[in-house]
Amino acid sequence: MHEVIAGITVPDSPLVVDATELVRDTTNELIYNHSRRVFLFGSLRARALGLEPDPELLYVAALFHDLGLVQKYKNLGQRFELDGAGQARDFLSSHGFSPAEASEVWTAIALHTTPEVPYQMSPVIASTTAGVEADVLGIRLDSMTADQITEVTAAHPRPDFKRRILQAFFEGFSDRTESTFGTVNADVLEHFLPEYRHINFVSVIKESAWIE
User: Fold this and answer.
1) What range does the domain containing 42 cover?
2) What is the DSSP letter of 198?
3) Per-residue pLDDT of the chain (212 residues; tens, 9 = 90+)
């Protein structure tokens, strides 16, 4: 029987079952509940935007988007977004999805902290970012009804979420600070580490190897 939350039907295919089990088994309730809310809010935002993302692909993008915050999936040589993106691409490929479909989900996750750009791309990519922005930043909550929001948060609560997700972000990339160059993630490091200063883009240009 399909699960329906706030009018959104959660797909129950073998892919979705496997994705759910993987994330439940390897992350904590903070990341799991947040990721499910991203799917639900992303689906609701898609409706408001007139988009029709593939439900399975959006589900995997939402469930995998923050895997880079989990020690098991960390690659200290790259941005945290790329960790979840790579895991999702491999996961979809192993389940018989096409390279194009796997690449679309990779892109959705890789760009989920990049403002504006995802909305000019495919429905899956746009809806993933819309779901993240709704749950983390509260962007366009007014496009959803109070009942919809209540139903989503009843199914997947967000107790003390602001503080806890910021702490999770910090722990996710405090040991790869240079990877936050040019991203919103540098703001998190500056919040938790008063002595930290993000890499300055102007300084990089002025101090580059070019002799003028």
Assistant:
1) 3-157
2) P
3) 689 999 999 999 999 999 999 999 999 999 999 999 999 999 999 999 999 999 999 999 999 999 999 999 999 999 999 999 999 999 999 999 999 999 999 999 999 999 999 999 999 999 999 999 999 999 999 999 999 999 999 999 999 999 999 999 999 999 999 999 999 999 999 999 989 999 999 999 999 999 98
- Evaluate whether residue 164 is within a structural domain: no
Q: Nearest-CA neighbor of 69 among 169, 188, 184?
A: 169
Number of domains in the chain: 1
Query: Has residue 27 been placed in a domain?
Result: yes
Q: What is the CATH number of the domain that holds 59?
A: 1.10.3210.10
In a domain, 109, yes or no: yes
Q: Is residue 97 part of a domain?
A: yes
User: Rounded to whole angstroms, how far apart are CA atoms 110 and 113?
Assistant: 8
What is the value of pTM for the model shown? 0.96
